[in-house]
Every structure is written in structure tokens, then in C-alpha cells.
Predict the structure.
Amino acid sequence: MLIDTHCHLNMYLHKRFGRDINSVLNQIQKNRILTVTTSLDETAFRQNLKIAKKSKYIIPTFGVHPWNASKYVNKIDSLKRLIKKSYIIGEIGLDYFFVKDKSKYAAQRRVFEVFLKETRNKVISVHTKGAEKDALRLLKRHRNKKVIIHWYSGDMGTLKKMIKEGYYFSVGPEIMFSDHSKKIVKSIPLKRILTETDNPGGPESIMGKKGMPILIKNVVVEIAQIKKKTSRQIEKVVEDNFKRLTECILPSPF
Ligand SMILES: [Zn+2]
């Protein structure tokens, strides 16, 4: 089964992405793509909950993206309440790359740490762009173990430390274009690999157009080439990894 462990289905509702969710849902349904739709804030979570009602293949998750952390720093109680409503948590983490204003980093760390404290027994999807070392430090401090590092693009040394901690890595469309991404995938053991699209905006930033769910197939093909396996084998590996990580706690279409 194809699995997209990190995308943003609610964003297809935005004008920028054409407001066409039906063709997206059709692709998911037709190709049986198990799809984890992550949220950047509470509004996105509510939208994702609604979308998930339309397909058994969609799992909605609550999260606050580091870009939105400063809006939540004084709403810790409501964060805790929302975390309880979500089996998987995402997108959370730190971003020192796209966020240039350093005065916002303390709020990012504060909100990330609230999530980490509340989610020791949950699977979390973590953004680490430009903040890989700090993200690892906080993950270790709070002893979170069910960790998916989303779109890792940092240095090889921190990657090795994250592998040692037992984290999983969701690999996305960037491996089709970047040698550094290919090198990263080479280093990640097969039993820790997951797949993602970061649709629709992630692929847009590297390919110039919005991604559609079926893009996950290209990601699988690319990983298969790098790992010298067949696409079928990679699909199975990812399915096994996802089941092991989530321990089948989810209402599952497998
Ligand atoms: Zn994302």
C-alpha cells in the first residue's frame, strides 16, 4: 500500500491551490493511498477533520507549525486539549531557515516543548529545517521515541545521531532533484524509511507546480533506485515500518 505520511490536504481548499479537493480525494481513493494530513494550526486541523470524513484512507493530525508558534505561546491549555484529540501529531518542530527573525525562536522552542511533553506516547511528524541540532536536543530531552523526521535536509552528522535514536524519516519528492537528498536516503536504514509528498506546497517549491497525491509513486520509484530494490519491495517496507511505528492503533484500511 502506498503511504503518504506527511501532506496538507486542507491546503487544496485554498484559492492558491485551485480549491479542488474532489480530484485529490479521487486519486487517493483510486490508488488506495493511506494519507496522513498534517496541520499547521487549529483552523487547518478542523478542515482536515472534515476532509478525513470523506475517505477511510485519510488520517488527520493536529499540530502547530514553527512558523505559527508565536500565535500559540499564550494558548498552552488549548494546545493540550487539541493534542488529546489526535492519534498522530504534526506538523510540529523548529525552523531557523525560513524564519530569519531570531526573536521568534524562543516561542518556537516553547511550543515545540509543550508538544513533546504531551506526546511521549504518540507518533509525531517533526519539521527541523535549519534547526536540526536543536530539534534533536529537545527530542532527546523529552525522550520522545515515536518520531518521524519530515523532509530531513540537514548535515550528515546530525542525521547519524537521529538514526541512532531510532527515529523514522519521511522522504519526499526532493530526492528526485537533489544529490544531498539522495545521499541522505542512502544513509537511512530501510527499516526507518517512510514516504511523503508534503503536498501541495512542498512540491510546488521544488517543481514549480502543486503536487497531487499520485506523486508518492515517484518518490517510491526513486527510493527503490537508490536502495537497489523494486518499487514493490519499497512499498512493502514502508507499510511495515508505518505499521510498526503506529502499532496499528489507527482505524486502518490495511
Ligand atoms: Zn509540511
Observations:
- Residues 6, 8, 38, 91, 198, 202 surround zinc ion (CB under 6 Å).
- The beta strands are 2-7, 33-37, 58-60, 88-93, 123-127, 147-150, 168-171, 193-195.
- Residues 2-246 form a domain with the TIM Barrel fold (CATH 3.20.20.140).
